[in-house]
Amino acid sequence: MEKLLSGAGKLGLQLSSEQLQQFETYYRELIDWNKRLNLTAITDYEDVQLNHFLDALTVVLAWQPDKGDTRLKVIDVGTGNGIPGIPLKIAFTEIELTLLESTTKKVAFLRHLIDQLKLGGTEIVAGRAEEVAHDSRYRESFDLVLSRAVAPLPTLAELTLPFCTVGGSMVVHKKGDIEEELRRASQAIDTLGGRLREVRALEIPELPDQRRLVVIGKISTTPEQYPRRPGIPKKRPIS
Ligand code: SAM
Fold it and tell me: Which of 172, 122, 162 is nearest to 142 (CA)?
């Protein structure tokens, strides 16, 4: 985990040998399950360290729990194989993490993985964001909402902002030139109770492709009718 260790240092994170061992286990389990279930195209040891683990941890450039701030609730929407949620939980054990994923085989992998990593305070929810966001146990319940590589922003805002508590934040990983995507998302963000706070360009040589963190604050309650039925946010994004 040399690449991860050195990259994390540049983010101001000092990972302990125990945490590095957890990342090692994460890698091994991913590769092992991938042979049977075809979970990811990225399997090279260094690529996983950089493009999955380190990329996930860049969230800390936009958000960090305050010292002593325990039980902060974080949800990762469309977590897939656990990115970015699980690396963040390994780095900040005190957060309460919810992983939301709709694909059954990925949910099975996540259940096995959190068992192997002995991650307490981690809940896995199998389902679609469009439905789970109407469940009162999850709606407007999270201080931080994360999501990477799930949908373009106009759609993503509808899948994620309903989970965020008023006063909380959403941090989304994006790549490349996102000016146009942001412009198209402005109506959706506004309608759902959000406000764009910042777009942070990542200047980390190990992570090319113009990576960005889009930070959106939740300033008012999301109207009850959102998100709409499964598939509608993608088919007809709010505009
Ligand atoms: N976030 C992970 C990452 O960056 O590696 C996974 C990205 S993968 C391209 C997108 C994931 O989002 C898939 O695992 C998919 O099943 C999940 N997903 C897509 N739409 C979803 C929805 N409406 N509700 C829940 N999960 C969804």
Answer: 162
Ligand 1 binding pocket includes 80 (Cβ within 6 Å): yes
The pLDDT tens digits of the residues spanning 139-164 come to: 999 999 999 999 999 999 999 999 99
Q: Which two tokens stand for residue 162?
A: 């309903």
Range of the domain at 9: 2-235
Residue type, 38: N
Cα 78 to ligand 1 centre (Å): 3
Residue 171 pLDDT: 98
Distance (Å, whole) CA 129 – CA 127? 7
For residue 59 the two structure tokens come to 């969230």
Find out whether 167 and 144 touch, Cβ atoms under 8 Å. Answer: no
pTM confidence score: 0.97
Q: Are the beta carbons of 50 and 87 closer than 8 angstroms?
A: no
Determine if ligand 1 sits within 6 Å of the CB of residue 232: no
Of the candidates 194, 210, 198, the residue with the CA atom closest to the CA atom of residue 156: 194
- Cross-strand partners of 17: none
Number of domains the chain is built from: 1
How far away, in angstroms, is 68 Cα from ligand 1 center?
Answer: 31
CB-based burial label for 201 (10 Å; 0-12, 13-18, 19+)? exposed
Q: What is the CATH number of the domain that holds 11?
A: 3.40.50.150
